[in-house]
Amino acid sequence: MDEVELIVNGKKLERKSMPKNGHLSWKAIYQPGKVKAIGYKNGRKAQEETIYTTGAPASIKVNADRTTIKADNQDVAVLTVSTYDKKGRFVPTACEEIDIEITGEGRILGVGNGDPANLDPEHPAQADCKRFKVKTFNGLAQIIIQSSYKKGEISVSCRNSSLLLNKCTIFSE
Predict the structure, then answer these.
(1) In this structure, are 68 and 148 located in the same domain?
(2) Are 39 and 69 in a shared domain?
(3) What is the DSSP letter of 18?
């Protein structure tokens, strides 16, 4: 963009020229609400992005990178746990402990959250782990599920005391 205009809670702050390979910043007092950035190219509006302040975490979603893995005791699926507020907006500040439980023909191989200061275990001690915990960091965590030699369904349930239960199913073939 050649220029960017910032609007905070309906108040236009300023339209600034974008330096080549640079960045822009504005001085603003934090208040919950929405921030809109409008990008201009050759004097015309070319892009618009709006972000909203989120509420407290109210639900979690679990999504797998794929729903079918090989029943070879080696294949894995990577599941992403995301936190959302009651309006369905992703909560990038959530740090929630998530209880993981799986049933079926697989095991929890490990977990992660990207927090460089995390000291919690990321690998279960037992070889055939069906229950484990992970904390979200910046609203996210990952779970790695590994197949066994048996074909069948692997059901993954994630929850904590204040958030709703969410499930994901993977098939081992």
Answers:
(1) yes
(2) no
(3) P
Residue 77 sits in a domain whose CATH number is: 2.60.40.10
User: Exposed, middle or buried, 110 (CB in 10 Å: 0-12/13-18/19+)?
Assistant: middle
Domain of residue 8, residue span: 3-52
What is the dihedral sign for C-alpha 104, 149, 152, 141? positive
Same domain, 68 and 129: yes
pLDDT confidence of residue 69: 97
Q: What is the per-residue pLDDT across 88-147, written as a single tens digit (0 to 9) for each?
A: 999 999 999 999 999 999 999 999 999 999 999 999 999 899 999 999 999 999 999 999
Q: How far apart are CA 63 and CA 18, in angstroms?
A: 37
Confidence category of residue 6, pLDDT binned at 50, 70, 90:
very high
Distance separating alpha carbons of residues 170 and 77, to the nearest angstrom: 8
How many other C-beta atoms can be found within 10 angstroms of the C-beta atom of residue 65?
A: 13
Residues 42 and 69 in one domain: no
Distance CA 87, CA 167 (A): 20
pLDDT, mean over the chain: 93
11 with 37, same domain: the answer is yes
